[in-house]
Amino acid sequence: MKFLKIKEENLDENYLELHYDEIDSETAAVLERLRPALKYIEGISDGKRVTFPLSSIFYFETVDRKTFGYTSNTCLEVKETLQNIIDDHKDAGFVRISKSCIVNLYKIKRLQGDLNMRTLIYLKNDECIVMNRGYRAEFYQALKHIQEKKHEAN
């Protein structure tokens, strides 16, 4: 199997292409490894039922017992609870940062310390969310796991 990695300037979104004659065991293993990143989530936005790639969600938040997913420009009400999202999609990079919020580790731009031992998380869409100190150990453990997987891939 050939693997081509090409850097393209000014892409709106990264993309992968797979060209194959038949799916052999090597190709099937690659697809299986990618599967967590290629999941979709269903919800309601502007009164319409929509489906979004899970990888486009920056974070999920619960407000008044309703769960919302946020993309770069859309708010999506989903039926799942935060715990169900964590259980079902932990491999896709979601980790809890407070009692009412989970974040997509792949959408983080930078971290910054704050007063009261909290951490400010700046996302790639320039939004800022707050991680409570009680979730710090779990967060950094998940971040380390993602970095190790990224290092293995390179």
The share of residues in helices is 10-25%
- SSE order: HEEEEEHEEEEEH
Taking the sheet with the most strands, its summary is: 5 strands, antiparallel
Number of strands: 10
Q: What is the 3D form?
A: globular
Low-confidence stretches: none
Classification by helices and strands: alpha+beta
Q: What do you see in this structure?
A:
With about 150 residues, the protein is of the alpha+beta class. It is built from 3 helices and 10 strands; from the N terminus they run αβββββαβββββα. The strands form 3 sheets. It has a 5-stranded antiparallel β-sheet. A 3-stranded antiparallel β-sheet has the order 8-9-10, with no helix packed on it. Strands 1-2 form a two-stranded antiparallel ribbon. Strand 3 (about 60-65) and strand 4 (about 65-70) form a beta hairpin. The chain is globular, with a radius of gyration of 17 Å. The two termini are about 15 Å apart.
Key terms:
154 residues; alpha+beta; 3 helices
How do you describe this structure in short?
This protein is an alpha+beta fold. Helices cover 23% and strands 32% of the residues.
